[in-house]
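Weekly puzzle thread! Below is a chain. First person to post its structure in token form gets bragging rights.
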Amino acid sequence: MKMFIKALLATDLSPASFAMVNCSCLDALSRLGTEECILSMCIDGGTYDLNVFNQTKLIFEKWLDQQKNILEEKGLSTSIHVCGESPAKGVPLLAELKQCSYIILGSRGHGMVSDVLLGSVALEIIHNSTVPVLLFRVKGEEEAPEKITCCSASENILEHVLFPTDFSANSERAFQYLLEIARKGSTKITLMHIQEDRRIKPHLEHRLEEFNRIDSERLASLKRKILEEAGMDVDISLLHGSAVEEILKFSEKHGVSLIVIGTRGRGSLAGIFLGSVSHNLSRHSKAPLLLVPDRPRL
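Winning reply:
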């Protein structure tokens, strides 16, 4: 099953988007099996008449050639598409129409001045997408565009992959992508579950030992499945506390190169997604994230 064969990379031609395209993390895409990339820029065509939009589109296509050349140097066959929709609507729609396996986005993260794609709009795209989103964080300020760089501490996103799971059906879908990453040659994988204090305390503390035993067995079962697919280093981590805080602390301490996690997608914005683990990781994680929606198209 080819889960990563065709990518849609969303850009806004900002300095931050050039930092993402130039990032050495993207060198691993060919190892994942990515053969084709659609370089997409979305501009809201409703604000222009048709002639102005067509002229603007031609200008952007010429500028996009710079990023296209960078991607092709990384071994990706790249085409350009300028979309006449808002990014939040146009990027997920184009990914479906072009039958892309996943979307690549950049994020400026919490507390930074946002570009069009690399701020809150990125979260809207994640919410609307029916395919996984590979999210990279960039750091730096618009006042010094030459200093904007990717936040990732590792040049190889397959080096140490972290998989936080709550053992839900949604996490099981994300686990299928983790297995594919294992097959493609990840060096190390850590399987993680967090016993969240807000769920345990104060009424279920007396059952914590029972929960730990059950969840340790579940993590061990996932480990066996990975080892059946690929011989590699697989660790298990069973933690207690706040899920977001524990994931971020572990990621920083152990040099995690990629976090694979399930998200709640379309139709869940008012409920699980806002304030959820995946939402907060999207805002705060320095490590790249592969966010797998609850109904991905495999």
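Puzzle host: Confirmed. Bonus trivia for everyone else. Residues 27 and 265 are 28 Å apart (CA to CA).
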